[in-house]
Amino acid sequence: MIQVARRSLLSIEHLQAPEILALLKLARRMNPLKPRPLLRGKRVILLFYEPSTRTRASFEVAAKSLGAITTLIQASGSSIEKGESLLDTGYTLRAIGADAIVIRHPCAGAPHLLASHLDVPVINAGDGMHEHPSQALLDAYTILRYKKTFKGLQVAIIGDIYHSRVARSAIHLLSKFGVKIILCGPPELLPDVATTLATGVRVTRHLEEAVRGTDVIMLLRVQKERLAGLKIKLSDYIARYQMTPARLKLAKRDAIVMHPGPIIRGLELSGDVADSPQSKILEEVQNGVPTRMAILARAVGKAR
Ligand code: CP
Q1: What's the domain count of the chain?
Q2: Do residues 181 and 234 both lie within one domain?
Q3: Which of 1, 85, 291, 302 could serve as 38's disulfide partner, Cβ 3.0–4.6 Å?
Q4: Are both 21 and 150 inside the same structural domain?
């Protein structure tokens, strides 16, 4: 059970820097266009309690590129709708012969619960506001394609940081490598000062301050309904925080723009920025496949 738990990927917070580097190195050796049968005959179950396009599709392509059989279970249309619990669903999938379970769930800690009860590696594909470890790994992979090293880098993370599992995993990962991180957004969408002071991460509500001289701009998804709920006017958010060509010019000339997706043009960023050569948003999606191939190979113990 302990060996299996070690092969799960539940969070970035609990990974050591050398484990992260080993996964990134393995990801660089993975090529979906040259499939390797490392998972031949293995069954990978994709258990999604929340919508997903990128994570779900790239885990599926990654698993199939390694020769695995995949099965998708979504809350809608499965016995989850009839009230079956997470653990009973997990036991059922194990009985069917799952060799690995990739789970997305609205509750923080759901993948940990599953992993602590099943002798199957569990991969967290996003749990509530907690973590999205595979996204952080593919983002790190993307950053290193352009910046070669984390040493001396500055990353500005802009948008709804408070509710973002993507931000939480990215902050854990980048701070393990000494990256200078600046969080930026309206105060209602920023984490509390005590948390950020404890981690040494800087916080500002001024976009220009966050972007000036930065190497990487990581934009986050902003939900219109959440802005409305917090009484933040959409027009104010756009006026103060939308990434535009003029604001992008404040960053280093070779700065890259990232976004985990789904993007909303005209809200988090302008169409010009989304389509600019500095935007690496689609490349992040592409890099999700080799990164998730590496995660799956590690999960089934074929990470050589
Ligand atoms: N980045 C991300 O998690 O996207 P999906 O919700 O489409 O999987």
Answers
A1: 2
A2: yes
A3: 302
A4: no
Categorize the per-residue pLDDT at 23 as very low, low, confident or very high, splitting at 50, 70 and 90: very high
- State whether the beta carbon of 191 lies less than 6 angstroms from ligand 1: no
Claim to verify: residue 146 and residue 275 sit in the same structural domain = yes
DSSP for residue 102: E
- Model confidence pLDDT, tens digit, residues 153-186: 999 999 999 999 999 999 999 999 999 999 999 9
Please report, for the domain that includes residue 104, its CATH number: 3.40.50.1370
- 19 C-alpha vs ligand 1 centroid, how far in Å? 24
Gap between the Cα atoms of 214 and 196, Å rounded: 19
Atom index in ligand 1 nearest the CA of residue 57 equals 8
Mutate to test the pocket of ligand 1, among 48, 49, 52 (most ligand atoms within 8 A of CB): 52
Q: What is the domain range of residue 98?
A: 2-131+286-299
Examine the domain organization and report whether 180 and 271 are in the same domain.
Answer: yes
In this predicted structure, what is the pLDDT of residue 199?
67
- Decide if 53 is inside a domain: yes
The verdict on 295 and 231 lying in the same domain is no
Residue 79 pLDDT: 87
Overall average pLDDT of the 210-234 stretch: 97
d(CA 238, CA 21): 37
pLDDT tier, 303 (very low <50, low <70, confident <90, very high otherwise): low
Rounded Cα distance, 277 and 152, in Å: 23
Residue nearest to atom 6 of ligand 1 (CA): 52
Centroid of chain to Cα 21: 16
93/157 same-domain check: no
> Using CA positions, which residue lies closest to atom 1 of ligand 1?
260
Question: Which residue CA neighbors atom 4 of ligand 1 most closely?
Answer: 54
Assessment of whether the complete model's pTM goes beyond 0.90: yes
